[in-house]
Write a structure and sequence with these properties.
The structure is a single chain. The chain has about 525 residues and is α+β, with helices and mostly antiparallel strands. It has nine helices and eight strands. The chain has one domain: Outer membrane efflux proteins (OEP) (Up-down Bundle), CATH 1.20.1600. A four-stranded antiparallel beta sheet has the order 2-5-7-8, with no helix packed on it. Strands 1-6 form a two-stranded parallel sheet.
């Protein structure tokens, strides 16, 4: 007898142990972080000299990327504007609410790890047919007898019976996660949450990059328009002088028309710059969360922007842990990987436990008295046998989605490295172009200075001085454009390297640098 009890005890403990073990397993492959190829880099032979542009600006792996990377440009008004963009642009609100939504989805899925408990109460008013006989339906759960009405004076028959009926119960439903379907589902939603967090950081970087680009563009266009207006003024003066010479017989009509053509061309050239400036101002308004019609004081001057002597460049192994788009693509692999486990677990048996406890009576105060109580406990085992290929097809589809996410990750990494490499090459080219533009500007400035001195002494006429000033203004426009390109490409480098989001105060993000 003792032996049988021992066997029963061992069997029960074994079953309990098996249940715990099964509850701890999760079918499907475990996620593994993608490995970066050893060939990953920005230049073909990794020669450090190739990473150094001409001029006073160098690349360095020791240069940090601050969260407020735009501050390295040295413009207080730019920093003020970017902060306004971060605080007011609706895109940040969209990204933040998306992240909070993703968090709640995870919490909701985690709830399936626990039993669901509910309560139900029902009351009904019932009519019992009299032809079922007296005292029907007999003794209810509370011991009362429901009697039908009997006719004392006429033919003997039973009238109908009216009664109330109360039912109250507490229900329980629980599905043990034996094969890890819910664990994989939670894992996939957590991956989506992290993806959304990295998308929040990507939105932050994109907004700040657009704000910086708009500010630089506004300052550049204002300087270009100012130089063009000076050119137009010079050409107008030349036309007036040529017209006077024509009237005095010292110039031909062809000379007048030639100068007037140059004036018209200069006036035509300034039109697209003015249009671009208006559109840039509209962008500056909208980025900061304002309508184009609203008044905001955001006027940038090109001379207030300065590049640091050293620009950052991240090691390849660091780049893949810094760029939000790469990290989001990695989490998409994690999500797809977990979904394979979900679909695989769906092909295995599922066990469900349901239970209820309550009472039923024709009087509320008798619900749990005189034998009115009841309970039920049901164990349900569901085994998929044939589904027309649906389950296997879903599993295969999940595997294909995983393969797709891996390929998309590789593509994202390649594009990121190309982005950094292209930006570095652009900065190198900008240094060459800016050096030549600066030389040309200085030469024309010296020529203008000498011509001005000669004009005061009477050695040259006013027309020569005006043409020298036009040449100087044209060289100035070229220099402004080259400097704008360098500032824009330097800002693009900070963005290409990840924008330093890992050092900023978190807005509402799980996206911490891995």
């Amino acid at each position: 007898m003792r032996k049988k009890n021992t066997i029963k005890k061992i069997s029960f403990q074994g079953a309990l142990y098996l249940t715990v073990c099964l509850s701890g397993c999760a079918l499907g492959p475990d996620f593994q972080q993608p490995q970066l190829s050893k060939q990953a880099g920005y230049v073909e032979n990794h020669n450090k000299q190739q990473l150094t542009p001409l001029g006073s600006i160098n690349f360095s792996t020791q240069t940090s990327i601050p969260a407020d990377w735009w501050s390295v440009l040295g413009s207080p008004s730019l920093s003020t504007y970017v902060e306004m963009v971060i605080n007011n642009n609706p895109s940040m609100t969209v990204a933040e609410t998306s992240l909070r939504q993703a968090k709640q989805n995870v919490i909701a899925q985690q709830g399936f790890f626990f039993p669901s408990i509910g309560a139900d109460y029902a009351i009904s008013r019932n009519k019992l047919a009299g032809n079922l006989g007296g005292n029907s339906p007999g003794i209810q759960g509370n011991g009362n007898v429901i009697s039908t009405y009997q006719n004392p004076s006429g033919p003997i028959f039973n009238g109908p019976a009216y009664f109330n009926f109360h039912t109250a119960e507490v229900t329980l439903n629980y599905t043990p996660d034996f094969f890890g379907a819910n664990r994989r589902a939670v894992e996939s939603l957590e991956a989506q949450e992290k993806t959304t967090a990295y998308q929040l950081e990507a939105t932050y970087i994109t907004l700040t990059a657009n704000a910086v680009a708009a500010a630089i563009q506004q300052a550049s266009l204002k300087a270009i328009i100012e130089a063009n207006q000076r050119i137009i003024k010079d050409y107008q003066t030349i036309v007036n002088l040529t017209q006077r010479q024509f009237e005095l017989g010292y110039a031909s009509a062809m000379d007048v028309n030639s100068q007037f053509t140059l004036l018209t061309q200069a006036q035509q050239q300034i039109v697209p710059f003015k249009q671009q400036l208006e559109q840039t101002n509209d962008l500056i308004h909208v980025l900061s969360g304002h309508f184009p019609s609203e008044q905001i004081k955001m006027n940038f001057v090109l001379d207030e922007f300065h590049l640091p002597h050293s620009l950052p460049v991240s090691l390849p192994s660091n780049l893949v842990r810094q760029r939000p788009d790469i990290l989001a693509a990695e989490e998409q692999i994690h999500y797809a990987n977990a979904q394979v486990g979900v679909q695989l677990a769906n092909r295995f048996p599922q066990f469900n436990v349901t239970g209820a406890i309550g009472g039923a009576a024709d009087a509320f105060n008798q619900l749990y008295h005189n034998g009115a109580g009841f309970f039920s406990l049901i164990g349900d085992l569901s085994v998929p046998i044939f589904s027309g290929g649906t389950l296997s097809a879903r599993e295969q589809a999940a595997k294909e989605a995983l393969a797709q996410s891996v390929a998309q990750y590789k593509l994202t990494v390649l594009n990121a490295f190309q982005n950094v490499a292209d930006t570095m090459h652009a900065i190198q080219s900008d240094a060459d172009a800016l050096k030549n533009a600066e030389t040309l500007l200085n030469t024309n400035q010296q020529l203008l200075s000498m011509t001005t001195s000669q004009e005061k002494l009477g050695f040259v006429n006013q027309l020569i001085l005006l043409n020298a000033d036009i040449a100087y203004q044209q060289a100035k426009i070229n220099y402004i454009q080259m400097r704008t390109n360098q500032l824009g490409d330097a800002a693009a480098l900070y963005v290409a390297l990840g924008g330093g989001w890992w050092d900023k105060k978190p807005l509402d993000s799980l996206a911490k640098k891995p």
